[in-house]
Design a protein that fits this description.
It contains six helices and twelve strands. The chain is α+β, with helices and mostly antiparallel strands. The structure holds calcium ion (2 copies).
Length: about 375
């Protein structure tokens, strides 16, 4: 019997290379394989354990059927204003074009319950776009921390200690060409509520002289704020990494029209991508721009609370993009999942205590793997 299998098979060239790609559904006759876990416990499967044909089938459920039937369960809990953030961290990497989309939500949610628990993390945005040349998923993270020191400590933890299932985070085989930096925040400001207005984001980055650029950055931040406000942007961060001689701007845009759960919001993405770069204010500095990418916001995290009792992550462009769902193998208590509607949720999941039957996949909110402070000897 033929299965309806929409897939990421057609990636039409965007208006600007590297920024926008068309997501289209096609049909094929390939049958869906049994995706039951082969291990002793329900797990999030290694995407490389599947054949590409299977991944395309998963895209059906992930993109248009299963995920499309579930709504985002965003809680409206304000976080601290961005003005108080003094540290930032960023990663950029690609995922293979055939990454199984139904695994995107649960993989990210499991990571969230450990990464968002690190000291000082205020929020994280995960961006998403498609490389028109090869269909790879362009993603990563944009984080704010309460101090630059904690952002640097987070980088060390991600690089050297965040080991799930025997693999360090950045050594996961599906993370292609990761590039990560910790930053000092020169300035960060939200013009609108993070919960409703940060739909797309643009990141500019420059290699700058090793001599301090702090003065010019601080001097021009107010002008950047004024320009961003005049353009109707919803948030802006100006970041500096003096040891690596890097400067970055991260800025966010709201939706420019109605959202459609069946089609990515190309209008909002295009409005930000096609606008003159905010970083033009630094053109007279002669810096070398190394990065300029506009992406959708896939998800926004808030600080983790034991038992996953805190604010749910936001998924402002899902659907059509993937998101967690009941039955995805990870009990997301913050989304209101319970044994009544989510088979992955044991009755004891959510109390903050690891009990029999709970593990770091089905109940990461209770099964804590990474102490926040190293043990004293
Ligand atoms: Ca779930
Ligand atoms: Ca428990």
């Amino acid at each position: 019997m033929s299965a309806y299998t929409p897939r990421l098979s057609t990636l039409t060239a965007p208006q600007r290379p590297g920024q926008v790609a068309m997501l289209q559904a096609t049909t094929s006759g390939s049958a869906r394989e049994d995706t039951a876990a082969t291990g002793p416990r329900p797990t999030i499967q290694d995407p490389h354990s599947r054949r590409p044909g299977t991944w395309a089938c998963l895209a059906v459920l992930g993109l248009l059927v299963v995920l499309g039937a579930t709504g985002a369960a965003a809680e409206d809990e304000p976080d601290e204003p961005d003005e108080r953030a003094r540290g930032a961290f960023s990663c950029d990497f690609a995922l293979p074009a055939d990454f199984p989309l139904d695994q995107v939500g649960p993989v990210i949610e499991r990571d969230r319950m450990y990464m968002a628990a690190r000291p000082g993390m205020r929020h994280k945005h995960i961006p998403i776009a498609f490389d028109p040349d090869n269909g790879q998923i362009l993603t990563g993270g944009r984080y704010l921390f309460d101090t630059a020191r904690r952002a640097r400590l987070y980088k060390d933890w991600v690089f050297n200690h965040f080991n799930l299932d025997g693999t360090l985070f950045l050594q996961r085989p599906y993370f292609l060409a990761p590039e990560c930096h910790a930053w000092d925040v020169i300035g960060a400001h939200d013009f609108a509520d993070i919960h409703t207005s940060q739909i797309v984001l643009r990141t500019e980055r420059w290699a700058v002289p090793h001599a301090s650029q702090g003065h010019v950055l601080r001097q021009r931040f107010n002008a950047l704020l004024a320009t961003a406000q005049a353009r109707g942007l919803s948030s802006i961060w100006l970041l500096y990494n003096k040891p690596e001689a890097l400067v970055s701007l991260v800025y966010f845009g709201d939706r420019v029209g109605p959202s459609d759960p069946t089609v990515p919001d190309f209008a909002s993405l295009g409005a930000l991508a096609d606008a003159p770069p905010l970083g033009a204010i630094f053109d007279d500095q002669g810096w070398t721009q190394t990065f300029d990418r506009t992406q959708w916001t896939l998800t926004i995290w808030f600080p983790f609370v034991l038992g996953d009792q805190g604010a749910a992550a936001l998924w402002p462009n899902s659907p059509p993009f993937p998101q967690p769902f009941s039955g995805d193998g990870v009990c997301e208590v913050s989304r209101g999942e319970s044994p009544a509607d989510s088979p992955e949720c044991l009755p004891t999941c959510g109390d903050g205590i690891a009990q029999a039957g709970e593990n770091s996949v089905n109940c990461p909110g209770d099964v804590r793997l990474f102490p926040l402070r190293p043990p004293r000897h």
